Amino acid sequence: MYTPKHFNEPDTATLHALMRAQPLATLVTLASSGLDANHLPLHLSTEPQPLGTLRGHVARANPLWKDLSPELEVLAVFHGVQAYVSPNWYPTKAEHGKAVPTWNYAVVHAHGTLKVIEDASWLRAHLNALTAHNEASQAQPWKPSDAPADYLEKMMSAIIGIEITITRLSGKFKLSQNQPESNQMGALHGLRETGHPPSLAMAALMEQVLGTGKQSS
Question: Distance between CA 115 and CA 44 in Å, rounded?
Fold first, then answer.
């Protein structure tokens, strides 16, 4: 991933936070037919330190777990907030016209080795952890044990576990860091004015990372 210095996010805790908030990853693997991409939620564990482990599951019918070279790295891409930025929002555009559109976004790349796991106890623990994380905001969180035992066993027999030990972690937070503060403020105002939820989320992330614009909130 091409990452200019001003867009690089090196803090592991920040990257982990995005991965937890946006767990639906694009998992890129090399199959016999070439590159393949699957989209699945991956649950992050911080162990082993410092980068952690990703755990997930796929359908047994999915060839991913069979058509895989275990010695090759895989890549899991986690997509954070993203939004279009208009040059009309930049004060410098009104001054000299030298401005072009861009796209702001946050993304994390996790590289690692993938292991296929068929152990039922591991799979049950994984499903419990995955659902507990995603059901935490519910008034009455659903648990796998809420389903009839025979139904749950049938559903579990149709999936297989995967575990990725993270060996490299990189983050790109492209948030107008390359623009003067006046343009950053203009982008924040423009994003807010759209009223579009992704744009509002991007404005909030820019405030958090850049530490600018809060006075105009």
Answer: 15
